[in-house]
Design brief:
alpha+beta; CRO Repressor; 2 domains; elongated
C-alpha cells in the first residue's frame, strides 16, 4: 500500500466537530434561503445559479474545516444527509411548522393579470416571469389564468380556458381524425 493510504482516512479534526459543523451549516443555509426567498431556489437566471454554486463552495470549508481526509468528507456527507432526513421526517408530522419554515405560495398572475406587488416581494421582474412562461410553452401573460411561485421555487401555471369556438374546433378535428382511422381500417379489411 502507498504511504499516503492510511493518512487519507485519518480524521484531521475530532469526530464530534466533524458532526457539529455540517449541522450548523445546514441550519444556517435553511434559514438564509428562507429569508432570501424562493427566487434562489427557482434559479431563474445564470446569476441565481452562480449564487447557489458559489454558496456551496463557500460553506465547504465551514463543513469540513482543515480536514481533507476521505473519512472526514464521508462523516460530513453522512451528517448532512442524516440531518436532512430527520428534518424532512419531522416536518412531515408537523405541517404548521413546515408551512412556517417553507413559507407560502405566491400568486404572480391572477385571472390573467400580473400581480406587481407579489413580483416585487419575490424580487422578480416582469421579464423573469415572461421567461418562465416561455419555458413552459406559453407565448404571453394574457394566456395565463393563474401563475403561482411555490415555496420550493417551482412555478405552477394554469392557462386560461380556450374560447368555446376553439374547443369545438378541436373536438371536431379529433372526431374527423377518428373517422379517418376507422375508414382506413375498413379499407384494410376488404380483400
Amino acid at each position: 500500500m502507498p504511504a499516503w493510504f492510511p493518512s487519507a482516512f485519518e480524521l484531521g479534526a475530532p469526530l464530534v466537530e466533524k458532526i457539529i459543523r455540517p449541522i450548523i451549516v445546514y441550519l444556517a443555509l435553511v434559514i438564509l434561503l428562507r429569508i432570501f426567498g424562493k427566487r434562489e431556489l427557482a434559479q431563474l437566471n445564470p446569476f441565481d445559479l452562480v449564487v447557489l454554486l458559489s454558496l456551496s463552495n463557500t460553506v465547504q470549508n465551514a463543513i469540513i474545516g482543515n480536514d481533507n481526509s476521505i473519512t472526514g468528507g464521508l462523516v460530513g456527507a453522512v451528517t448532512l444527509l442524516t440531518v436532512n432526513y430527520a428534518v424532512v421526517r419531522f416536518l412531515l408530522r408537523h405541517r404548521r411548522l413546515d408551512e412556517l419554515l417553507e413559507g407560502s405560495p405566491t400568486c404572480l398572475i391572477e385571472k390573467g393579470r400580473v400581480q406587481s406587488k407579489a413580483l416585487a416581494r419575490e424580487l422578480l421582474t416582469r421579464a423573469d416571469l415572461v421567461t418562465v412562461l416561455h419555458r413552459q410553452g406559453y407565448k404571453k401573460v394574457e394566456d395565463i389564468d393563474h401563475c403561482v411561485l411555490e415555496p420550493g421555487g417551482t412555478f405552477f401555471i394554469e392557462p386560461k380556458e380556450p374560447p368555446i369556438e376553439e374547443r369545438q374546433r378541436k373536438e371536431i378535428l379529433a372526431r374527423l381524425e377518428d373517422l379517418k382511422v376507422q375508414i382506413e381500417a375498413l379499407r384494410g379489411e376488404r380483400p
